Amino acid sequence: MSKELINFNNVRKTYSVGEKNFDALSGASFTVNKGEFVVILGPSGAGKSTILNLLGGMDKATSGEIIIDGKDISKLTPKEMTHYRAENIGFIFQFYNILPTLTVIENVELINDIVKNPKPAMEVLKRVGLEMHAGKFPNQLSGGEQQRVSIARAIAKNPLLLLCDEPTGALDSQTGVEVLKLLKEQCRSGENTVVIVTHNSLIAEIADRVIRVKNGKIRSNELNTSPKKIEEVEW
To answer: What is the per-residue pLDDT across 33-42, written as a single tens digit (0 to 9) for each?
Structure first.
């Protein structure tokens, strides 16, 4: 039986805009098991990015519980939250957030100062097919290669969760497929649980679990009993 990794329980997130309050999430609940490849799907403004920010400890819930690996992170102090982000979360964004003045391997090695047990940078670069580019700077790489640097840096943290915000949004379809293969492989190896926020319903076809969000509420949380192989999807 799979171990439950995420329990998002009746979570509300309210923002104040002027004198008005706005609920980005209103009583959202879902669970995710360890090792799953999860897609959170919904239109712009649905609350997807809010969920990702809360899971990643970049924001705090107004109410409710966010239990990650048995610990309610909504109760952490700011110092504890910083430690949680550093040790447990790998972030992958649509735009790669790698430093232009550092080489590929230096960008990956940045996390050595953040986590206790990072994976060797060159080992991770080999995994994402970039070992031959270790000494290059980001402006010498294609967009897809820069995204793979971002993935390598996230993987090198050896995190519980890889949180991805539209990770293929800035890529052409063929390059996007290669990035999705890398992320899927992280789940297959049992090393990570991957959560992807996207409005691209095609990515849902390869997911183990699809969570649909609309107007700050979870509309469905379904296991995909027969996810397609990436090559079977008509991108």
So the answer is: 999 999 999 9
